[in-house]
Amino acid sequence: MRVALLLAAMIAVFVSAAVLLASDEIFSTGPLPPLVAPPDNPQTDAKINLGKQLYFDTRLSADNTISCATCHDPKTGWANHHKTDTGIKGQVGKRNSGSIIAAAYMRYQFWDGRAGSLEQQALGPIHNPIEMGETLENVVRKLTAIPGYREEFRSVFGKDPDTDGIAKAIASFERTILPGPAPYDRYLAGEKHAMSASALRGMHLFNGKAHCSTCHSSPAFSDQSFHNLGVGMSAPDPDIGREAVTKDPRDRGKFKTPGLRNVAETDPYLHDGSEATLMDAVNFYDKGGLPNSNLDPLVQPLSLTPREKGDLMAFLEALTGPVPEVSPPVFPPGPTPELAAPGGAK
Amino acid sequence: MKALRWLTLTLLAATLMGLLPGPSWAVPPFARKYGFDCTMCHVQYPKLNDFGQSYRDNGYRIMGKETLDKTVLETAPPIAMRTSVGYNHDTFDNPGGPENDIRAFQVNGVDSLAGGLFSDRIGFLAVYLPEIAGSRHVAAQTSALEMANVVYSALDAPLPFTLRFGRFEPAYVAFSAKRTFTVAPYDIYDFAGPEGFALADTQDGIELARVFPQGLKLAGGWVNGSGRLDDSDAPRDFYLRASKMLGPGQGQVVGHRVGAFLYSGRARPSDGGSREGFHRLGLDASLNFGQTNVMAQYITGKDDAALNAFNPARDYDLSGGFVEVNHSLPGDIVTFGRLGWVNTPSEQNHDEHGATIGLRYYPAVNVALHAEFSRRRVDRGADNGLSDLTENLFTTRVDFAF
Known about the structure:
Distance between the termini of chain A: 75 Å
Oligomer: heterodimer
CATH class of the largest domain in chain A: Mainly Alpha
CATH superfamily of chain B: Porin
Largest sheet of chain A: 2 strands, antiparallel
Mean pLDDT of chain A: 90
Structural class of chain B: mainly beta
CATH architecture of chain B: Beta Barrel
C-alpha cells in the first residue's frame, strides 16, 4: 500500500513537472512566429513593390547582367543549384548562395554573419567585386537617372534614390518571402497525419540521435550562431569564415547555421556547396564533419543506419512549406531597357 | 515452457505497444530541459552515446552552448523517476542452502533522480532509492542515496578541468553499471575480497578530470573506498585513469576507446589491525563496428596478506573481467550478451562465472520492454563441503523512466 501511494505521489509530481516544463525547452523548434519588421523600416505595399523591382533588376550590377535573383532565384527555392555562383565577368565566388526563404528570421546574414540585418545584407552583393561589382554611388546614380525609379523612391521614401532606400526596399521585399505552414507545422497544430510515419521517426532523430537540434533549433531551425564543421579547412588557403569578421581565432572556420525551412529545395548544401544533395549532407554529418583543430564539439559521428537517414530525410522534406508565387516585376524603363524587360530577370 | 510463454506474451505486448500512435509525452529532466529526445544522449536509455558521454564530461552542459543553459532556478524541478515492472523467474540451485526461487510479477525497485545546473559552472546529479519492503510481488529495496555529487566545470580555464565532489560514479568504472542494458550486474566491479572491499560503482570523495585534445582523458580521485572505514579514518584510496579515443567519437557508439586504471587503497582488517594496502589494475576497451559495440574489461588485484582472511600467510590475488556485446537492430531493438568471470585464490575457491543474453525493444524513447536470461555459477570451497551455487534468472519487464 505504501509503495502504491509513493508511486502515485511521485507520478503526480512528475506529470506536473512535465507539464510545467513543456514550454521551457532551450533548444525547441516550432511554427514560425509572426514576422516583425524593424521600426525604422515598416512594411508597405509600395516599398515591397519597389524592392521587388530592385531585387530582379540587373541594372544594379556593373555590367547590367546580374541581379539578386540571379543567385537567389525563386525558381530554385530562392537559392541556386550551383555549388557556388558566377558573378560579373565570369568570376566564380567561394560560397554557396543561401536561400532567402525565411531569411528575415535570421539574426545574421551571409555565411559569416557580417551583416546584422536584411538591410545591411541587401547592399553587400551590389558592391562585391565578384558578384554584382557595382559601386553604391554608381547604382544610386543609375537609379536616379531612371524616371520611374526616381518617382517611386520619392513616393515611398520622400527622396531620390539612395543606398538607404535601396537597402530598405529590397529588405522589405525579402521579408515577404516566407514559407507557409509545412507538414511539420501542420503536425504541431494538431493535424496528426500531416507527417508520414517516416518523417515522425525522423523528427525524433532530429531531436535525438542525429543531434540536429543542438544547432538547428528555433522556429527557423537555426541557433543563430556559427560552427566549424571542418569544411574546406584542409585547403592551403581555407575560407576562415566568421574569423574574418570577428578577428577571433576561435571563430576560425565557423559559418552560420542556416535555417532549414524548405531546405529540401535548396541543394547543394554547406557554405561551399560541397554536398550536392540533402542525403549527401546527412552523410556528411553522420561521419562527424571533417577533423580540424577547431571542429565544433557538437559535431560528432552519429552511426545512423540507412533507414534512419531515410527517416531524417523525410522529416527535412516535411519542413517544406508553400512559398508565395512572385510574378516578374515590371521595370521602369531606363538606359538599358533590353536588360530591364521582364524576360531579363534572372 | 512457462518462461517461453511469458517471453512470447511480452514480445506480443511490445509489438502492440509499438503500433500505438503518438509521440512519447515525457522524457527525463535533462532531455526535457533542452527539448531533446532521450536518444540525444543515450544509444537507447540507459546507455550513453558519444554525445551523452561528452555532456557528462562537460559537467551536464551542452558542449559549446554553455551560455544558453538554464539553472534549476530557471526551470521546473528537474526530477525524474525510473522503475521497472515485470515477470521474474529466478531459480537457484543451492545445495545445502536456501533456494528462494521466484516466479512472480514484481516491481523491481524505483530510482528517483534529480540533475541540472546550480550555476553556469556548477552541475549536480542525485539518485535516491526509497525504501521498499520486499514481498512476493515487490523486490525489496534498501533506502540509499546512490549518488549525490556536484560538478564544477572550468573548461574555459587555461588548464580546463572538471571537479566532481560527493558520491559519484568514479572514472575507473569504464562501463557504467548504472547505464548498462543488463539487469545482471558486472560481477567484477561488485566482487568483494575477504575484507569486504569491492571496487564498487560509486564512491564518496573527489575526482579531478581533464579531457585533452586528440581524445586523451585523464582522471584521478581521492575516495573513501568501499572497505571498512570508520568516520574517524581519513580516506586513503586513490585512483588514476587514462583513456584514449581512437578515431572520431567517444568509443561509446562510434570510434574506439582504450583505457587503463590503477586503484590503490588501504583497508583495515576485521581484527582491527593497522591498515594495509591493496591495489587493482584494470584495462578496458570499447570497440565499435557499425551498430555493434564490443566492450571488454580486465581487472587484476592484490590485497596485502594481512587482508587475506583465507590465508594470512600470503597476499590475496584476484582477477576477472567481462566481455560484452551490444548490437542495435532496426526497429528500435537492442540485443546484448555478456560473459563475465572472477578468479579467486585457490584457498578461497570462490570463482564466479556468468553469462547473460537478452534484448530490449523500445516502443517509445523512454520505455523499454526487456527480456533477459542470466546464468551465474559460483564455486564454493571444496573444504566447506558445499556444491557450487547456480542461479538462473529469466526476467521480462517494462523498464521506463520519466
